[in-house]
Amino acid sequence: MSTTAATPPVTPAATAVAHANIALIKYWGKADDDLIIPVTSSLSLTLDDLYTTTTVCFDRDAGAGDVATLDGEPVTGKPMVRITALLDLVRDTAGIDRAATVTSANTVPTAAGLASSASGFAALAGAAAAAAGLDLSDRELSRLARRGSGSASRSIFGGLAVWHAGHDDETSYAEPVPDPHHFAADLAMVVLVLDAGQKSVSSRDGMRHTVETSPEYRPWVAAHAGHLASALAAVADRDIVALGEAAEVNAAGMHATMRSAVPPVDYLTDASHAALAAVAAARDAGFPAWATMDAGPNVKVLTTAAEASRLEGWLREQLASDIPGLHTVVAHAGPGLTVTREDC
Ligand code: DP6
Predict the structure, then answer these.
(1) Ligand 1 in contact with 21 (CB < 6 A)?
(2) Which H helix or E strand runs over 45?
(3) How many Å apart are CA 253 and CA 228, to the nearest integer?
(4) Same domain, yes or no, for 176 and 316?
(5) Of 150, 181, 212, which residue sits at a domain end?
(6) Residue 30 C-alpha to ligand 1 middle, in angstroms?
(7) 23: Cβ below 6 Å to ligand 1?
(8) Is 23 a member of any domain?
(9) Which of 86, 151, 250, 294 is the best mutation target for the ligand 1 pocket, counting ligand atoms within 8 Å of the beta carbon and taking the most?
(10) Is the CB of residue 153 below 6 angstroms from any atom belonging to ligand 1?
């Protein structure tokens, strides 16, 4: 009697690595909540040391539902709903009905205003599309990542990226900023991690509340186009002073819109304000240093690659006694999305 060894079915999987990005000119407010079309365009720097690695395998029966882990912990509740919503877009496009196993690991403190949703959804989009057999262009990947989290549209690209607000799904995507002289390589960010805990108001809720209630929101939007134009001109001129000034004004304005919302939303803490004062003092002491903050208390300091570690040491010394738990990261321009196809 002869037996034939059954060949186990091969299920395609893919692993993607996407890096966090920090906006120099911000996205804050949606024109379309479902499609995630922003009110403003935005400009960001993708960072090297902060990234998410995600593997997707469509290995589960449709009825079993998707499962995901992040840093070994099961993902549940709203974050899981957002993951399944992105996977549904991929399943619809690819015409598959299998549920997925998603395994993700972060070097970015999750949801602490360090852009973990940007790297997370960019990695998920890249891995899910490849695992489903889709062959998407970078622009299509950017649009897909955008549906998971707006800022993720920019994490498809390395260096400096601009997300064009557009007016519908097709016209709202990010792309690299022309950078023939590799200006991005001259830039660095000193990230002052003041509190790595979860933020209490998500950026999604915070921006909706700001758009709906803040009298400062429309004036900020009106000024925003000028901030972006100045920043893009600064990149073309390799002028970090002009870039830093535009970034600082834009971020301060964004936080002013939140503080004037009813009731106010204020992500900045006493430690954030101490950090902002230290950045101003660093500039007075001759450092290239400009601060930007997102939906959390941490302060990111734009500087030059040449001065980044000296600035980090200086800021640590200034802040050590005021902020005992201070943790700092020096990040440089990072790469765009990478995807590897494999079997589950
Ligand atoms: C302050 O991209 O996290 O970091 O699209 O609702 O997922 P959703 O929001 P998200 O918002 C980021 C806001 C910001 C500014 C920015 O990255 O441009």
Answers:
(1) no
(2) strand 42-60
(3) 13
(4) no
(5) 181
(6) 10
(7) yes
(8) yes
(9) 151
(10) no
Q: Which ligand 1 atom minimizes the distance to the CA of 36?
A: 5
Same-domain status, 136 and 213: no
Q: Which ligand 1 atom minimizes the distance to the CA of 25? A: 18
d(CA 43, CA 235): 11
pLDDT per 10-residue tile (average), the chain, 344 residues: 59 95 98 98 95 97 96 96 98 96 84 73 98 98 98 98 98 97 96 82 96 98 98 97 98 98 96 97 98 95 98 97 91 98 93
CATH number at residue 101: 3.30.230.10
C-alpha 202/C-alpha 112 separation (Å) is: 10
* Number of independent structural domains in the chain: 2
Domain assignment of residue 3, yes or no: no
Q: How many CB atoms lie within 10 A of CB 263?
A: 7
Q: In this structure, are 223 and 323 located in the same domain?
A: yes
The residue from 121, 156, 181 where one domain ends is 181
Which residue do the tokens 């803040």 mark? 214
In a domain? residue 342: no
Same domain, 133 and 258: no
> 41 in ligand 1 pocket by Cβ < 6 Å?
no
Token pair listed for 53: 């690695």
Structure tokens at 49: 């040391």
In-domain check, residue 2: no
User: Going by CA atoms, what residue is nearest to atom 1 of ligand 1?
Assistant: 294
The range of the structural domain enclosing residue 162 comes to 12-181
Q: Which of 243, 333, 235 minimizes the C-alpha distance to 24?
A: 243
Rounded-to-integer distance, Cα 118 and Cα 9, Å:
34
* Ligand 1, atom 3, residue with closest C-alpha: 203
Q: Of 52, 54, 89, which Cα lies nearest the Cα of 68? A: 54
pTM for this entry: 0.95
Does the CB atom of residue 29 touch ligand 1 within 6 A?
no
Query: Inter-axis angle of helices 203-213 and 240-259, to 10 degrees?
Result: 70
- The CATH number that applies at residue 299 is 3.30.70.890
